[in-house]
Amino acid sequence: MAATKKGSVGKGDLVYIDYDAYLADNDKMFDTTMAESAKTAGFFDEKFDYEPMPVLLGSGKLFEALENAIEGAEVGKETEVKIASADAAGARDPKLVETYQIKEFYKQDITPYPGVEVQLGNRRGTVMYVGAGRVKVDFNNPLAGKDLIYKFTVRDVVTDNVEKAKAVVKIIVGTSDGFEFTITDEKVIVTLPELTKFDQSWPVARFSVVSDLRKVANVDTVEFIEVWSLAEKKKPKEEDADEAKPAKKKPKAEAEPETENEEPKEAPKKRAPAKKKSE
Asked: How far apart are the first and last CA of the chain?
């Protein structure tokens, strides 16, 4: 993460923030970037990486009211903002509550029960009711119709272009591991990791990556490099290579002249040089 820039945050900055998010009507925490807060609220997930979240201000990926609050916030100081439902997830739409036959879920090996999230087609919803062979699903955003409170702290403002590129990819893809970046005045060159070859969401995510990289690096061109290479072949060990060579004939040892009642002596053998161990 880049070093913290002192002062306040400006529009277009790329920042890392920590936050706790609450439902305003009952002060129930529903999201956080911090492990201790998640443990206190009772929804800690050991598989989740709790760490500051990268945000590109002006990209529209957060509620506008939250982005506006982050702009102008002082780095390192906790800020609280209340967001009305109309400026957050909007009002609930009764038309987005639909009823299905329970067999539709069994076909997908899903056992529906109230509160479980389900994916039907390209829509995600929450099961509200199960009974009489029917399942009622709410496709509204879970935060629809609710006022929210965010308590956030800007931890860092990213100034290095490579760190900006990493943060952009992390925002869109979820990780920047394996991505490599070369940035010039004219373009950004991105060498892609193996995961993009098999991630079905990458072709769509790529367009967002291009758009945001252009903004943070102030360039027109973004170039992707995808490398496909065979696994490196094993080199034969030196010992194996030596064994493969035809053996050289050793010159016959000359015998010493025989003396009476004495066996002929063999020529002294030279000590073979020690072989290097193969790397």
From this structure: 37
* C-alpha to C-alpha distance for 175 and 192, rounded to whole angstroms: 12
Rounded-to-10 torsion of CA 189, 193, 194, 196: -70
Q: Which residues of the chain have pLDDT under 50?
A: 1-4, 254-279
Whether the Cβ atoms of residue 145 and residue 85 lie closer than 8 Å to each other: yes
In whole angstroms, what is the distance from residue 26 CA to residue 3 CA? 37
Say what the pLDDT of residue 6 is.
56
For residue 189, CA distances in Å to 1, 160, 184 come to 20, 16, 8
CATH classification at residue 74: 3.10.50.40
The tally of domains found in the chain comes to 3
Q: Give the Cα separation of 151 and 68 in Å (integer).
A: 14
Contact between 171 and 55 (Cβ < 8 Å): yes
Q: Give the predicted TM-score (pTM) of the model.
A: 0.75
Around 116, how many Cα atoms within 13 Å sit in the side-chain half-sphere?
A: 13
